[in-house]
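look at this record:
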Amino acid sequence: MGNEIVNLLSLFSPVTFLYLCMGTFLGIVVGALPGLTATMAVSILISLTYGLSAANAIVVLIAVYLGGIYGGSRSAILLNVPGTPSSAATAIDGFPLTLKGEGGRAGVVVTTFSALGGLFGLVILAVATPLIARFALKFGYWEYFWLAMMGVLISASITTGDAPNYKGIIAGFIGMLISCIGIDPIHGYPRMIFGYSQMMGGINLVPAMIGLFGMAEAFDAIKNPKSHEVMELKKKESLPAMIGASFKMLVKYPRAAIQAGLIGTFIGALPGVGPDIASWVAYGTAKRGSKHPEEYGKGSYEGIIASETANNAATSGVFIPLLTLGIPGCAVSAIILGGMQMHGFRPGPTFFFENPSFVYFIAGTLLLVNIVMWLQGVVLTSVIAKILKAPMGIIMPLVVVLCVVGSYTISLRKFDVVVMLIFGLFGMVMRKLKIPGAPMALGIILGSMADLSFRRGMIAGRFSIGSFFARPLSLVLIGILAFALLLPVVNKIRDRNRARNQNR
Protein backbone atom coordinates (compact mmCIF):
# COMPACT_ATOMS: atom_id res chain seq x y z
CA MET A 1 0.00 0.00 0.00
CA GLY A 2 2.89 2.35 0.69
CA ASN A 3 3.84 2.38 -3.00
CA GLU A 4 0.49 3.82 -4.06
CA ILE A 5 0.72 7.33 -5.51
CA VAL A 6 -1.65 9.72 -3.74
CA ASN A 7 -1.79 13.28 -5.07
CA LEU A 8 -4.23 16.06 -5.84
CA LEU A 9 -5.43 14.30 -9.00
CA SER A 10 -6.62 11.37 -6.85
CA LEU A 11 -9.47 13.57 -5.61
CA PHE A 12 -10.91 13.88 -9.11
CA SER A 13 -11.68 10.18 -9.31
CA PRO A 14 -15.50 9.71 -9.29
CA VAL A 15 -15.19 6.86 -6.79
CA THR A 16 -13.03 8.93 -4.41
CA PHE A 17 -15.41 11.90 -4.64
CA LEU A 18 -18.36 9.59 -3.92
CA TYR A 19 -16.58 8.29 -0.81
CA LEU A 20 -15.96 11.91 0.21
CA CYS A 21 -19.67 12.80 -0.08
CA MET A 22 -20.78 9.64 1.74
CA GLY A 23 -18.23 10.15 4.52
CA THR A 24 -19.29 13.77 5.04
CA PHE A 25 -22.97 12.81 5.25
CA LEU A 26 -22.22 9.98 7.67
CA GLY A 27 -20.19 12.36 9.82
CA ILE A 28 -23.02 14.90 9.96
CA VAL A 29 -25.54 12.22 11.00
CA VAL A 30 -23.20 10.73 13.63
CA GLY A 31 -22.32 14.17 15.01
CA ALA A 32 -25.98 15.14 15.31
CA LEU A 33 -26.84 12.07 17.42
CA PRO A 34 -25.96 12.59 21.12
CA GLY A 35 -23.19 10.26 22.23
CA LEU A 36 -22.12 9.16 18.75
CA THR A 37 -18.99 11.30 18.50
CA ALA A 38 -16.64 11.80 15.57
CA THR A 39 -13.92 10.01 17.58
CA MET A 40 -16.03 6.87 17.90
CA ALA A 41 -17.09 6.91 14.24
CA VAL A 42 -13.54 7.33 12.91
CA SER A 43 -12.16 4.67 15.28
CA ILE A 44 -14.79 2.16 14.06
CA LEU A 45 -14.26 3.03 10.39
CA ILE A 46 -10.46 2.77 10.41
CA SER A 47 -10.51 -1.04 10.34
CA LEU A 48 -13.20 -1.04 7.64
CA THR A 49 -11.04 1.15 5.36
CA TYR A 50 -8.18 -1.36 5.29
CA GLY A 51 -9.40 -2.89 2.04
CA LEU A 52 -9.80 0.50 0.33
CA SER A 53 -7.13 2.35 -1.62
CA ALA A 54 -5.06 4.82 0.41
CA ALA A 55 -6.77 7.84 -1.20
CA ASN A 56 -10.29 6.53 -0.55
CA ALA A 57 -9.50 5.43 3.02
CA ILE A 58 -7.96 8.75 4.07
CA VAL A 59 -10.74 10.74 2.36
CA VAL A 60 -13.40 8.79 4.29
CA LEU A 61 -11.66 9.29 7.65
CA ILE A 62 -11.18 13.05 7.14
CA ALA A 63 -14.73 13.52 5.80
CA VAL A 64 -16.32 11.72 8.78
CA TYR A 65 -14.16 13.77 11.16
CA LEU A 66 -15.07 17.17 9.72
CA GLY A 67 -18.72 16.23 9.22
CA GLY A 68 -18.97 14.93 12.79
CA ILE A 69 -17.58 18.12 14.35
CA TYR A 70 -20.07 20.21 12.34
CA GLY A 71 -23.00 17.81 12.86
CA GLY A 72 -22.94 18.24 16.63
CA SER A 73 -24.25 21.79 16.20
CA ARG A 74 -27.59 20.61 14.79
CA SER A 75 -28.90 18.88 17.92
CA ALA A 76 -27.28 21.60 20.06
CA ILE A 77 -29.39 24.24 18.31
CA LEU A 78 -32.66 22.32 17.90
CA LEU A 79 -32.79 20.35 21.17
CA ASN A 80 -30.17 21.98 23.44
CA VAL A 81 -28.38 18.62 23.42
CA PRO A 82 -24.80 18.95 22.06
CA GLY A 83 -24.13 16.14 19.59
CA THR A 84 -20.39 16.39 20.29
CA PRO A 85 -18.35 18.00 23.10
CA SER A 86 -17.14 20.70 20.69
CA SER A 87 -20.73 21.90 20.12
CA ALA A 88 -21.57 22.43 23.81
CA ALA A 89 -20.79 26.17 23.59
CA THR A 90 -23.08 26.44 20.53
CA ALA A 91 -26.05 25.23 22.58
CA ILE A 92 -25.81 28.23 24.93
CA ASP A 93 -27.10 30.60 22.24
CA GLY A 94 -28.32 28.16 19.59
CA PHE A 95 -31.26 26.76 21.55
CA PRO A 96 -32.59 30.20 22.63
CA LEU A 97 -32.64 31.10 18.93
CA THR A 98 -34.73 27.98 18.28
CA LEU A 99 -37.17 29.02 21.02
CA LYS A 100 -37.51 32.36 19.22
CA GLY A 101 -38.47 30.52 16.05
CA GLU A 102 -35.11 31.07 14.37
CA GLY A 103 -33.79 27.51 14.48
CA GLY A 104 -33.71 27.23 10.68
CA ARG A 105 -31.75 30.44 10.21
CA ALA A 106 -29.37 29.53 13.05
CA GLY A 107 -28.77 26.17 11.36
CA VAL A 108 -27.82 27.82 8.07
CA VAL A 109 -25.61 30.36 9.89
CA VAL A 110 -23.60 27.66 11.69
CA THR A 111 -23.35 25.70 8.44
CA THR A 112 -21.88 28.69 6.63
CA PHE A 113 -19.46 29.65 9.38
CA SER A 114 -18.45 26.04 10.01
CA ALA A 115 -17.39 25.79 6.36
CA LEU A 116 -15.73 29.23 6.46
CA GLY A 117 -13.90 28.27 9.67
CA GLY A 118 -12.59 25.10 8.04
CA LEU A 119 -11.47 27.03 4.96
CA PHE A 120 -9.85 29.70 7.14
CA GLY A 121 -7.88 27.03 8.97
CA LEU A 122 -6.93 25.47 5.63
CA VAL A 123 -5.48 28.78 4.37
CA ILE A 124 -3.36 29.11 7.52
CA LEU A 125 -2.40 25.44 7.18
CA ALA A 126 -1.08 26.15 3.68
CA VAL A 127 0.61 29.47 4.46
CA ALA A 128 1.90 29.35 8.02
CA THR A 129 2.34 25.64 8.81
CA PRO A 130 6.11 25.66 9.51
CA LEU A 131 5.90 28.76 11.72
CA ILE A 132 2.91 27.56 13.76
CA ALA A 133 4.32 24.07 14.15
CA ARG A 134 7.65 25.48 15.40
CA PHE A 135 5.83 27.71 17.91
CA ALA A 136 3.53 24.90 19.11
CA LEU A 137 6.58 22.72 19.69
CA LYS A 138 7.82 25.22 22.32
CA PHE A 139 4.87 24.44 24.59
CA GLY A 140 6.03 22.36 27.55
CA TYR A 141 4.28 20.86 30.57
CA TRP A 142 4.16 24.29 32.23
CA GLU A 143 2.43 26.01 29.30
CA TYR A 144 -0.11 23.19 28.96
CA PHE A 145 -0.97 23.54 32.65
CA TRP A 146 -1.59 27.27 32.32
CA LEU A 147 -3.55 26.70 29.09
CA ALA A 148 -5.82 24.25 30.92
CA MET A 149 -6.29 26.64 33.85
CA MET A 150 -7.04 29.48 31.47
CA GLY A 151 -9.69 27.37 29.76
CA VAL A 152 -11.44 26.53 33.04
CA LEU A 153 -11.28 30.06 34.41
CA ILE A 154 -12.74 31.41 31.17
CA SER A 155 -15.94 29.86 32.56
CA ALA A 156 -16.30 33.15 34.44
CA SER A 157 -17.17 34.84 31.16
CA ILE A 158 -18.91 32.15 29.10
CA THR A 159 -21.91 31.83 31.38
CA THR A 160 -24.75 34.21 32.01
CA GLY A 161 -25.23 36.14 35.18
CA ASP A 162 -23.13 38.62 37.09
CA ALA A 163 -19.49 38.88 36.06
CA PRO A 164 -17.32 37.29 37.19
CA ASN A 165 -19.54 34.21 37.56
CA TYR A 166 -18.10 32.50 40.63
CA LYS A 167 -20.62 29.67 40.35
CA GLY A 168 -19.20 28.94 36.91
CA ILE A 169 -15.64 28.85 38.27
CA ILE A 170 -16.66 26.51 41.10
CA ALA A 171 -18.47 24.24 38.61
CA GLY A 172 -15.33 24.20 36.45
CA PHE A 173 -13.12 23.12 39.35
CA ILE A 174 -15.64 20.41 40.34
CA GLY A 175 -15.36 19.13 36.77
CA MET A 176 -11.56 19.06 37.10
CA LEU A 177 -11.90 17.08 40.33
CA ILE A 178 -14.20 14.58 38.57
CA SER A 179 -11.61 14.16 35.80
CA CYS A 180 -9.11 12.89 38.40
CA ILE A 181 -11.26 9.84 39.23
CA GLY A 182 -9.64 6.56 38.17
CA ILE A 183 -6.10 5.22 37.81
CA ASP A 184 -3.36 7.78 38.34
CA PRO A 185 -1.58 7.95 34.94
CA ILE A 186 1.86 8.49 36.54
CA HIS A 187 1.95 6.13 39.52
CA GLY A 188 -0.85 3.74 38.53
CA TYR A 189 -2.65 4.20 41.87
CA PRO A 190 -6.49 4.29 41.97
CA ARG A 191 -7.93 7.65 43.02
CA MET A 192 -11.43 8.38 44.38
CA ILE A 193 -12.97 5.10 43.17
CA PHE A 194 -14.55 4.33 46.58
CA GLY A 195 -14.19 0.57 46.07
CA TYR A 196 -15.97 0.47 42.70
CA SER A 197 -13.79 -1.25 40.09
CA GLN A 198 -15.92 0.25 37.27
CA MET A 199 -14.56 3.67 38.20
CA MET A 200 -10.93 2.66 37.68
CA GLY A 201 -11.16 3.74 34.05
CA GLY A 202 -12.35 7.21 35.09
CA ILE A 203 -15.50 9.11 34.22
CA ASN A 204 -16.01 9.21 30.47
CA LEU A 205 -16.68 12.72 29.19
CA VAL A 206 -19.41 11.76 26.71
CA PRO A 207 -21.86 10.08 29.18
CA ALA A 208 -21.23 12.92 31.64
CA MET A 209 -21.94 15.53 28.97
CA ILE A 210 -25.03 13.68 27.71
CA GLY A 211 -26.35 13.62 31.27
CA LEU A 212 -25.55 17.27 32.05
CA PHE A 213 -27.10 18.57 28.84
CA GLY A 214 -29.28 15.90 27.23
CA MET A 215 -30.91 14.09 30.16
CA ALA A 216 -31.26 17.26 32.23
CA GLU A 217 -32.90 18.94 29.22
CA ALA A 218 -35.32 16.04 28.79
CA PHE A 219 -36.24 16.10 32.49
CA ASP A 220 -36.75 19.86 32.30
CA ALA A 221 -38.98 19.57 29.22
CA ILE A 222 -41.09 16.83 30.77
CA LYS A 223 -41.43 18.83 33.98
CA ASN A 224 -42.24 22.10 32.21
CA PRO A 225 -43.34 21.55 28.56
CA LYS A 226 -44.04 25.25 28.01
CA SER A 227 -40.34 26.06 28.48
CA HIS A 228 -39.66 24.36 25.14
CA GLU A 229 -42.44 25.88 23.10
CA VAL A 230 -41.07 27.33 19.86
CA MET A 231 -42.36 30.73 18.80
CA GLU A 232 -43.91 30.93 15.35
CA LEU A 233 -42.25 33.38 13.00
CA LYS A 234 -44.45 36.12 11.65
CA LYS A 235 -42.65 35.78 8.34
CA LYS A 236 -41.25 32.43 7.22
CA GLU A 237 -37.89 32.61 5.46
CA SER A 238 -37.03 30.71 2.31
CA LEU A 239 -33.79 28.77 2.08
CA PRO A 240 -32.13 31.31 -0.29
CA ALA A 241 -33.10 34.11 2.12
CA MET A 242 -31.51 32.25 5.05
CA ILE A 243 -28.36 31.59 3.03
CA GLY A 244 -28.16 35.30 2.15
CA ALA A 245 -28.71 36.23 5.80
CA SER A 246 -25.89 33.90 6.88
CA PHE A 247 -23.40 35.62 4.57
CA LYS A 248 -24.60 39.02 5.78
CA MET A 249 -23.55 37.88 9.26
CA LEU A 250 -19.98 37.84 7.98
CA VAL A 251 -20.27 41.56 7.27
CA LYS A 252 -21.98 42.17 10.61
CA TYR A 253 -19.56 40.15 12.77
CA PRO A 254 -16.24 40.11 10.87
CA ARG A 255 -14.10 40.47 13.98
CA ALA A 256 -15.76 37.57 15.81
CA ALA A 257 -15.36 35.30 12.76
CA ILE A 258 -11.72 36.16 12.03
CA GLN A 259 -10.78 36.07 15.73
CA ALA A 260 -12.45 32.68 16.17
CA GLY A 261 -10.72 31.35 13.05
CA LEU A 262 -7.31 32.37 14.37
CA ILE A 263 -8.00 30.98 17.85
CA GLY A 264 -9.36 27.71 16.44
CA THR A 265 -6.44 27.15 14.09
CA PHE A 266 -3.83 27.97 16.75
CA ILE A 267 -5.42 25.80 19.44
CA GLY A 268 -5.92 23.01 16.89
CA ALA A 269 -2.18 23.19 16.17
CA LEU A 270 -1.36 22.54 19.84
CA PRO A 271 -0.85 18.78 20.26
CA GLY A 272 -3.49 17.14 22.46
CA VAL A 273 -5.92 20.08 22.65
CA GLY A 274 -8.36 20.08 19.70
CA PRO A 275 -11.77 21.55 18.72
CA ASP A 276 -13.48 21.11 22.12
CA ILE A 277 -11.30 23.69 23.86
CA ALA A 278 -11.09 25.92 20.78
CA SER A 279 -14.85 26.51 20.75
CA TRP A 280 -14.93 27.52 24.43
CA VAL A 281 -11.94 29.84 24.22
CA ALA A 282 -13.32 31.54 21.08
CA TYR A 283 -16.78 31.88 22.64
CA GLY A 284 -15.40 33.45 25.82
CA THR A 285 -13.10 35.77 23.87
CA ALA A 286 -15.95 36.88 21.59
CA LYS A 287 -18.18 37.61 24.57
CA ARG A 288 -15.55 39.73 26.30
CA GLY A 289 -14.97 41.78 23.15
CA SER A 290 -18.62 42.03 22.11
CA LYS A 291 -20.53 45.31 21.92
CA HIS A 292 -23.59 43.46 23.24
CA PRO A 293 -22.39 40.85 25.79
CA GLU A 294 -25.80 40.96 27.48
CA GLU A 295 -27.27 39.10 24.47
CA TYR A 296 -25.05 36.05 25.07
CA GLY A 297 -27.02 33.14 26.49
CA LYS A 298 -30.27 34.63 25.19
CA GLY A 299 -29.80 33.93 21.49
CA SER A 300 -26.70 35.68 20.14
CA TYR A 301 -25.69 34.93 16.55
CA GLU A 302 -22.24 36.27 17.40
CA GLY A 303 -21.91 33.52 20.02
CA ILE A 304 -22.72 30.61 17.71
CA ILE A 305 -20.54 32.14 14.98
CA ALA A 306 -17.54 32.27 17.34
CA SER A 307 -18.04 28.72 18.61
CA GLU A 308 -18.62 27.02 15.26
CA THR A 309 -15.97 28.97 13.34
CA ALA A 310 -13.37 28.03 15.96
CA ASN A 311 -14.09 24.32 16.31
CA ASN A 312 -14.14 23.82 12.54
CA ALA A 313 -10.99 25.92 12.06
CA ALA A 314 -9.38 23.61 14.62
CA THR A 315 -10.17 20.59 12.41
CA SER A 316 -7.79 22.05 9.83
CA GLY A 317 -5.34 23.19 12.53
CA VAL A 318 -4.86 19.67 13.90
CA PHE A 319 -3.20 18.66 10.63
CA ILE A 320 -0.39 21.20 11.18
CA PRO A 321 1.47 19.23 13.90
CA LEU A 322 0.34 15.95 12.33
CA LEU A 323 1.91 16.63 8.92
CA THR A 324 4.96 18.59 10.10
CA LEU A 325 5.91 16.75 13.30
CA GLY A 326 3.99 13.49 13.15
CA ILE A 327 2.19 14.53 16.37
CA PRO A 328 -1.65 14.32 16.37
CA GLY A 329 -3.46 17.46 17.45
CA CYS A 330 -6.40 15.60 19.04
CA ALA A 331 -7.80 12.10 19.61
CA VAL A 332 -9.41 11.86 16.16
CA SER A 333 -6.30 13.04 14.33
CA ALA A 334 -4.37 10.34 16.23
CA ILE A 335 -6.69 7.75 14.68
CA ILE A 336 -6.30 9.38 11.25
CA LEU A 337 -2.51 9.26 11.72
CA GLY A 338 -2.86 5.54 12.36
CA GLY A 339 -4.85 5.23 9.15
CA MET A 340 -2.10 7.04 7.21
CA GLN A 341 0.57 4.78 8.68
CA MET A 342 -1.56 1.72 7.90
CA HIS A 343 -1.43 2.76 4.23
CA GLY A 344 2.32 3.40 4.24
CA PHE A 345 2.56 7.15 4.96
CA ARG A 346 4.54 8.30 8.01
CA PRO A 347 4.21 12.06 8.65
CA GLY A 348 7.10 13.78 10.40
CA PRO A 349 9.63 16.63 10.13
CA THR A 350 10.84 15.52 6.67
CA PHE A 351 7.42 14.51 5.34
CA PHE A 352 6.90 17.79 3.43
CA PHE A 353 10.05 17.15 1.40
CA GLU A 354 9.51 13.42 0.93
CA ASN A 355 5.78 13.47 0.02
CA PRO A 356 4.76 16.97 -1.14
CA SER A 357 2.02 15.51 -3.38
CA PHE A 358 0.40 13.81 -0.36
CA VAL A 359 0.34 17.11 1.55
CA TYR A 360 -1.46 18.76 -1.38
CA PHE A 361 -3.87 15.82 -1.38
CA ILE A 362 -4.72 16.45 2.29
CA ALA A 363 -5.22 20.19 1.63
CA GLY A 364 -7.46 19.42 -1.36
CA THR A 365 -9.48 16.94 0.72
CA LEU A 366 -10.06 19.54 3.45
CA LEU A 367 -11.17 22.06 0.80
CA LEU A 368 -13.64 19.70 -0.89
CA VAL A 369 -15.05 18.31 2.38
CA ASN A 370 -15.82 21.82 3.66
CA ILE A 371 -17.59 22.72 0.41
CA VAL A 372 -19.58 19.46 0.34
CA MET A 373 -20.35 19.85 4.06
CA TRP A 374 -21.81 23.30 3.41
CA LEU A 375 -23.97 22.04 0.53
CA GLN A 376 -25.25 19.03 2.46
CA GLY A 377 -25.78 21.05 5.64
CA VAL A 378 -27.84 23.71 3.84
CA VAL A 379 -29.99 21.10 2.09
CA LEU A 380 -30.53 19.18 5.34
CA THR A 381 -31.58 22.32 7.21
CA SER A 382 -35.17 22.21 5.96
CA VAL A 383 -35.38 18.49 6.72
CA ILE A 384 -33.94 18.77 10.23
CA ALA A 385 -36.06 21.84 10.99
CA LYS A 386 -39.20 19.67 10.63
CA ILE A 387 -38.30 18.20 14.01
CA LEU A 388 -39.64 21.43 15.49
CA LYS A 389 -43.14 20.56 14.27
CA ALA A 390 -43.24 17.43 16.45
CA PRO A 391 -44.62 17.87 19.98
CA MET A 392 -42.24 17.69 22.93
CA GLY A 393 -44.12 14.60 24.14
CA ILE A 394 -42.67 12.74 21.16
CA ILE A 395 -39.26 14.42 20.84
CA MET A 396 -38.09 14.21 24.46
CA PRO A 397 -38.74 10.47 24.95
CA LEU A 398 -36.69 9.95 21.79
CA VAL A 399 -33.96 12.16 23.29
CA VAL A 400 -33.99 9.98 26.43
CA VAL A 401 -33.60 6.84 24.28
CA LEU A 402 -30.74 8.44 22.33
CA CYS A 403 -29.07 9.49 25.59
CA VAL A 404 -29.20 5.91 26.92
CA VAL A 405 -28.09 4.32 23.63
CA GLY A 406 -25.39 6.95 23.05
CA SER A 407 -23.96 6.43 26.54
CA TYR A 408 -23.99 2.64 26.28
CA THR A 409 -22.46 2.33 22.79
CA ILE A 410 -19.26 4.18 23.75
CA SER A 411 -17.79 1.28 25.74
CA LEU A 412 -20.75 -1.14 25.86
CA ARG A 413 -20.90 -0.71 29.66
CA LYS A 414 -24.04 -0.32 31.79
CA PHE A 415 -21.89 1.77 34.13
CA ASP A 416 -21.75 4.57 31.53
CA VAL A 417 -25.56 4.67 31.47
CA VAL A 418 -25.55 5.00 35.27
CA VAL A 419 -23.00 7.82 35.00
CA MET A 420 -25.22 9.55 32.45
CA LEU A 421 -28.28 9.30 34.72
CA ILE A 422 -26.32 10.58 37.75
CA PHE A 423 -25.06 13.57 35.79
CA GLY A 424 -28.60 14.12 34.53
CA LEU A 425 -29.73 14.48 38.13
CA PHE A 426 -26.73 16.76 38.80
CA GLY A 427 -27.84 18.84 35.86
CA MET A 428 -31.36 19.21 37.27
CA VAL A 429 -30.05 20.29 40.69
CA MET A 430 -27.55 22.69 39.11
CA ARG A 431 -30.31 24.30 37.03
CA LYS A 432 -32.39 24.71 40.17
CA LEU A 433 -29.46 26.43 41.90
CA LYS A 434 -28.64 28.41 38.73
CA ILE A 435 -25.20 26.81 38.46
CA PRO A 436 -24.15 26.48 34.80
CA GLY A 437 -23.32 22.99 33.56
CA ALA A 438 -21.06 24.06 30.69
CA PRO A 439 -18.02 24.93 32.89
CA MET A 440 -18.27 21.53 34.58
CA ALA A 441 -18.06 19.82 31.17
CA LEU A 442 -15.09 22.03 30.33
CA GLY A 443 -13.43 21.09 33.64
CA ILE A 444 -13.83 17.38 32.86
CA ILE A 445 -12.24 17.95 29.43
CA LEU A 446 -9.27 19.95 30.75
CA GLY A 447 -8.81 18.41 34.19
CA SER A 448 -6.65 15.46 33.14
CA MET A 449 -4.41 17.74 31.06
CA ALA A 450 -3.97 20.17 33.97
CA ASP A 451 -3.29 17.35 36.46
CA LEU A 452 -0.76 15.53 34.26
CA SER A 453 0.96 18.71 33.06
CA PHE A 454 1.30 20.10 36.60
CA ARG A 455 2.82 16.93 38.02
CA ARG A 456 5.16 16.40 35.08
CA GLY A 457 6.15 20.08 35.26
CA MET A 458 6.94 19.69 38.97
CA ILE A 459 9.06 16.58 38.27
CA ALA A 460 10.88 18.29 35.37
CA GLY A 461 11.44 21.41 37.51
CA ARG A 462 12.83 19.34 40.41
CA PHE A 463 9.68 19.95 42.46
CA SER A 464 10.00 23.74 42.35
CA ILE A 465 6.77 25.69 41.80
CA GLY A 466 8.90 28.53 40.46
CA SER A 467 9.40 26.66 37.18
CA PHE A 468 5.76 27.49 36.30
CA PHE A 469 6.57 31.21 36.45
CA ALA A 470 10.05 31.17 34.91
CA ARG A 471 9.32 30.57 31.21
CA PRO A 472 8.38 33.46 28.87
CA LEU A 473 5.44 31.60 27.30
CA SER A 474 4.11 30.73 30.77
CA LEU A 475 4.24 34.40 31.76
CA VAL A 476 2.30 35.36 28.62
CA LEU A 477 -0.44 32.83 29.46
CA ILE A 478 -0.52 33.98 33.11
CA GLY A 479 -0.93 37.57 31.90
CA ILE A 480 -3.83 36.58 29.63
CA LEU A 481 -5.43 34.61 32.48
CA ALA A 482 -5.10 37.54 34.92
CA PHE A 483 -6.52 39.93 32.33
CA ALA A 484 -9.50 37.60 31.70
CA LEU A 485 -10.25 37.41 35.44
CA LEU A 486 -9.74 41.08 36.29
CA LEU A 487 -11.50 42.59 33.27
CA PRO A 488 -15.05 41.59 34.37
CA VAL A 489 -14.35 42.95 37.88
CA VAL A 490 -13.03 46.24 36.49
CA ASN A 491 -16.02 46.54 34.15
CA LYS A 492 -18.43 45.88 37.02
CA ILE A 493 -16.81 48.55 39.22
CA ARG A 494 -16.81 50.99 36.30
CA ASP A 495 -20.51 50.37 35.61
CA ARG A 496 -21.35 50.92 39.30
CA ASN A 497 -19.44 54.20 39.37
CA ARG A 498 -21.10 55.30 36.14
CA ALA A 499 -24.55 54.50 37.58
CA ARG A 500 -23.76 56.46 40.75
CA ASN A 501 -22.63 59.48 38.78
CA GLN A 502 -25.82 59.42 36.71
CA ASN A 503 -27.99 59.29 39.86
CA ARG A 504 -26.33 62.34 41.37
